[in-house]
Amino acid sequence: xxxxxxxxxxxxxxxxxxxxxxxxxxxxxxxxxxxxxxxxxxxxxxxxxxxxxxxxxxxxxxxxxxxxxxxxxxxxxxxxxxxxxxxxxxxxxxxxxxxxxxxxxxxxxxxxxxxxxxxxxx
Length: 122
Hints:
elongated, mainly beta
């Protein structure tokens, strides 16, 4: 069983910063990609940022230059540093681990965290 536990959400004023963390645990052999998605009320879930095991990253255009994704492969943890936050960044942020191979080596799977609320408001 693989679990993703997120932390770091909360309420912040426009222009402020937050740092999200997501730690993967369980019988994990490898994780190819870890990323963050978000879903605002009435909208579809969208990619925010993703980082693969080699370190390459991809960002949504709306967060480029403001958000930074990083990863600690030893700790199996992914971080999202969010700066210059805007009200439109308000959403539930979900952590995703993709192409996860467990120690049983029986295929690759995708896992999701439970979500953490980020609210940007004055």
